[in-house]
Amino acid sequence: MLSGVNGPEIHFSFDPALHLFVASAHSTAGTPVATDGSSTLGHVVESLGVPLTEVGRLVVDGAEVSVSHVPQEGERIEVHAIERPQRLPGAPLRFLLDVHLGTLARRLRLLGVDAAYTNEDPGDAALAALSAKEQRVLLSRDRGLLRRREIWAGAFIYSDRPDEQLRDVLGRFAPTLAPWTRCTACNGRLMDADKDSVREHLEHGTQRTYDVFAQCTACGRVYWRGAHHARLEAIVEQALRESAT
């Protein structure tokens, strides 16, 4: 929140979906906030705790404005949540996940969604730069990271439960799904492989039991329908059902 200011006083009304971010004192419609008279509306909204990645329309006295609007005395401001599904330029969508979202990254890859991730934290600056360079949507539960100006696009992950995280991302962005086409380990593309070509990567029991294989074109990892396949299939089927509704 802006501190030490005695400039124009404006009045906020936040979408209930954004109440998670704002202090209880500012969640009531019409809450007055003093500004410094020069900060943009986007800056004021972020100072109250709401990442702009989560903000949709900004309406001032009934008229929609941009984040660069400088609030004036007595204005009444409605802050709406982002509309879903959120449409971004370019296709297909590509994502970048911070170090805390490894399970979500693997599940997105399982569904064929391009999801860059490393389990070594490169730091906020590097993540933001990569988001901009590769035009990837940065997914994070770190509000400070999502406030970095250089990111191309971002989204706050509201839950700490992987099932809910996946549902949230799919519902918000509606990415095209192509299950079983990406390596869950490195995000590379998978291609069909015959047993002879991957035999050196297989234990004897796997060689005897399975005949259908896929291999990552990037890291060489080999996949087959092992004991864990039923659990992964359930994740895929649930995601396909929900994306069809």
Automatic annotation (TrEMBL):
Q: Where is the Ubiquitin Mut7-C domain?
A: 8-86
Q: Which Pfam families match?
A: Mut7-C, Ub-Mut7C
Instruction: Give all residue intervals belonging to the Mut7-C RNAse domain.
Output: 94-235
Q: What is this protein called?
A: Mut7-C ubiquitin/RNAse domain-containing protein
Origin species, per record, is Streptomyces lydicamycinicus
